Amino acid sequence: MTEHNKAVLERVIYEVFNKNRLDLIPELYTEDVGGFDTATQQELSGHDIIRNLVAGYRATFPDHQYVLHDLVGEGDKVCARWSVTDRTIFPDFSVEGLSLCQFRDGKICRVWQQWDDLGLLQQLDAVSKSVNIASAVLNRPEG
Predict the structure, then answer these.
(1) Do the Cβ atoms of 83 and 66 come closer than 8 Å?
(2) Mind listing the pLDDT tens digit for each residue in 63-94?
(3) Which of its termini does the chain have fewer beta carbons within 10 Å around, N or C?
């Protein structure tokens, strides 16, 4: 079943997100799909929210393309490491993220998605490129 679940998540990335195939959502997600997306700070619930999420990404990043780097699965969960690019933003734009999906009856029933928010904000010049969370943590004054 893990291989089937990996194939479903791969279809979501390449067909739903990259090719805007919203018609595939009922085939790939349970009707009561839930989860959380840190990019939108929004709870996910149902097919309509998945459609709205994809439409929102496409409106913000009209030429976005996901590239799948890793798929790891065990039991009823599959984790994908991916990056997304959009050349309309600027030529080197790329943000990485992770999606952990839980499956039920061969469909995604729960999604937890994490983006590299700091990297995204730095690329959009919303946050200084000199901000480094790891350095701030390691060099924190003892208290």
Answers:
(1) yes
(2) 889 999 999 999 999 999 999 998 887 788 88
(3) C
